[in-house]
Predict the 3D structure of the following.
Amino acid sequence: MPCHEPAAILFAIIMRVLLIEDSPRLQDAVGRGLRCAGYVVDVTGDGKEGLWLAQSNDYDAIILDLMLPGLDGLTLLRRLRAGKHEAPVLILTAKDTVEDRVRGLEQGADDYLIKPFAFAELLARVQTLCRRRYGRKNTPLVIGGLHIDSVTRTVKHGKRIIDLTPREFSLLEYLALRRGEVVCRTDIEQHLYGENADLMSNTVDSAICTLRRKLGTAAPLIQTRRAQGYVLQDDIAQ
């Protein structure tokens, strides 16, 4: 799947997704497509490993096949919900009867997509689940004079347009989605770089420093909580 950023991809929010799918072809195509859209993606083809990953990490959405080795998808989903894990789940399967769809929804799935499918549709469904988790629609985030638009992926402070790289935009957006909440470095690393990324110890600190420099007079919105992380406040005097 080429990474040409079609129109549908431009609407993606940068979030972390778990793909549990045993087909190497779909693993590769869906994984690459989501990464091209800016998502951080963890991939496994085994049900037991998928359950362990889902229980061990904070995902914004999970794409789950039903026919899996080790542990079938419905059992995985049932155990996940029994453990009070609330990440939105999109079932991806060739089972297309009404009974199959109802069974999956009854076990706690949030959406259902039948194979074969168009990647643009999968992407749209994933982005909807991510937005739903944070209680957002497509309206821009407005915080302390900052206007953060996830659709056009632009940031303004007053009338000034702030030029950010995709990674910088993702960092600001992630902090904005969790405004008023202290976000630790580990959460930032996992959501923006992935669990297995080879990062320097000061990667997040350097990214925050660069972001603050570009924000200029809006920089005080991002506050450091020593030994805890960072918080984006909306009550700083402008």
About this structure: The chain has a mean pLDDT of 83. DSSP finds eight helices and eleven strands in the chain. Residues 29 and 72 are 22 Å apart (CA to CA).
